[in-house]
């Protein structure tokens, strides 16, 4: 909805001048206040606490709450409560996020005030704001919410606490607890919002799968090979895949017993994998239908590592490019396509030669395109099983391959399948 429409809504609800509301709204939005917050605070300013169209907020069970509700009163059990620091109107602000449940369902919440919520508490949240996130209702517990703790606990058919398996984690999950083994970890310095900061990043896993992580306050317990319990982590998307975030509010403790890490990647159809918006560790099976331009023998900028065209880097201008090998191949399984990216090692494997061999072939032919042509002849029309990291963004779906293996099918079966593919 446009600001204009929000202003009109508010003005008619509150019975005041639209231009006045619009100016206030604009101001708040410019300060990066989410639109729903902004509207609520204006409702308070102009003396309508109800949120909707007048009257006190009604008590609702969780399954009755819809994104059309303005404010509601809910009695529920706190399943999870995780602290997180956000920058809000130029100030660092600690918020608490998690999930609430009653007999009828579960809902995400954000508490903007310190109510002292912890997992297992039964509470009544009076006048909680309802906002929409990704099409679903969420609760905002803020200044105008009255929160009371009940002595008698509510029985709910949901597990209290944030215990989770890696494979089940999704972008947006909060206050999760995982038992994992650290597979890779490195410290690096980034230019953060408060200047240079040291962070830790790597890969962790459990029996169900693997995911990348970032730890915003480096922790000596997190080292390759260590088995640890991480409490109060949250999951956000980074470079197109979910990433476990360990913050200053998370707790990391060593585990006595080693956490086993599963070795199988999830096998998915390409269409399904792309629709999911990105998968860290996935296996896709399909036919290579083309090898894209910019494959084979290429040159990279020594400054930024980007591929240079005719000695020109888009950022660094004329550079002395460094030779490298890579393949960008289009994989199709009938449900969708992805661009598979092979690094220098996998490219040497499919080319069946080294960078030196490629340079020599190019010198002899006086054309470096011959390397891509050779690779094209070897892999187009064949079926492969490819394991890697799938990221999906505005530029398309890319699978960063870790393994690239040909499926040994009978050649006639393969040819028939490929023809069917092409005809489809
Ligand atoms: Zn460059």
Automatic annotation (TrEMBL):
One term of GO molecular function: DNA binding
UniProt entry keywords in alphabetical sequence: DNA-binding, Plasmid
Signal sequence, start to end: none
UniProt-listed GO biological process terms: double-strand break repair via homologous recombination; response to ionizing radiation
Name by which UniProt lists this protein: Replication protein A
Region span, Disordered: 43-67
């Amino acid at each position: 909805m446009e600001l204009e429409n929000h202003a009109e809504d508010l003005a008619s609800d509150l019975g005041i001048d639209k231009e006045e509301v619009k100016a206030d709204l604009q101001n708040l939005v410019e300060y990066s206040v989410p639109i729903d917050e902004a509207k609520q605070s204006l409702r308070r300013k102009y003396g309508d606490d109800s949120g909707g169209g007048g009257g006190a907020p009604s008590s609702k069970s969780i399954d009755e709450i819809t994104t059309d509700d303005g404010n509601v009163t809910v009695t529920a059990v706190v399943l999870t409560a995780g602290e997180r620091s956000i920058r809000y109107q130029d100030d660092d602000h600690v918020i608490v996020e998690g999930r609430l449940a009653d007999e009828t369902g579960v809902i995400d919440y954000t508490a903007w005030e310190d109510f002292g919520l912890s997992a297992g508490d039964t509470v009544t949240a009076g006048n909680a704001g309802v906002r929409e996130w990704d099409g679903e209702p969420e609760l905002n517990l803020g200044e105008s919410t009255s929160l009371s703790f009940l002595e008698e606990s509510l029985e709910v058919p949901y597990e209290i606490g944030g215990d989770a398996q890696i494979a089940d984690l999704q972008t947006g999950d909060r206050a999760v607890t995982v038992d994992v083994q650290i597979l890779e970890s490195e410290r690096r310095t980034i230019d953060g919002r408060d200047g240079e900061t040291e962070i830790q990043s790597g890969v962790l896993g459990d029996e169900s799968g693997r995911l990348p992580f970032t730890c915003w306050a480096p922790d000596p317990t997190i080292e390759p090979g260590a088995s640890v319990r991480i409490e109060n982590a949250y999951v956000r998307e980074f470079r197109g895949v979910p990433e476990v975030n360990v913050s200053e509010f998370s707790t990391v403790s060593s585990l006595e017993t080693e956490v086993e890490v599963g070795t199988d990647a999830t096998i998915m159809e390409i269409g399904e994998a792309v629709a999911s918006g990105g998968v860290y560790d996935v296996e896709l099976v399909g036919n290579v239908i083309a090898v894209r331009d910019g494959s084979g023998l290429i040159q990279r900028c020594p400054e930024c590592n980007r591929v240079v065209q005719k000695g020109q880097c888009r950022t660094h201008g004329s550079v002395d490019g460094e030779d490298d090998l890579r393949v960008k191949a289009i994989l199709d399984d009938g449900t969708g396509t992805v661009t598979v990216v092979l690094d220098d090692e996998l490219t040497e494997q499919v080319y069946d030669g080294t960078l030196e061999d490629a340079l020599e072939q190019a010198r002899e032919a006086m054309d470096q395109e011959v390397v891509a042509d050779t690779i094209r002849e070897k892999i187009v029309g064949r079926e492969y099983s490819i394991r890697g990291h799938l990221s999906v963004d505005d530029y398309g779906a890319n699978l960063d391959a870790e393994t690239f293996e040909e499926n040994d099918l009978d050649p006639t079966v393969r040819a028939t399948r490929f023809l069917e593919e092409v005809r489809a």
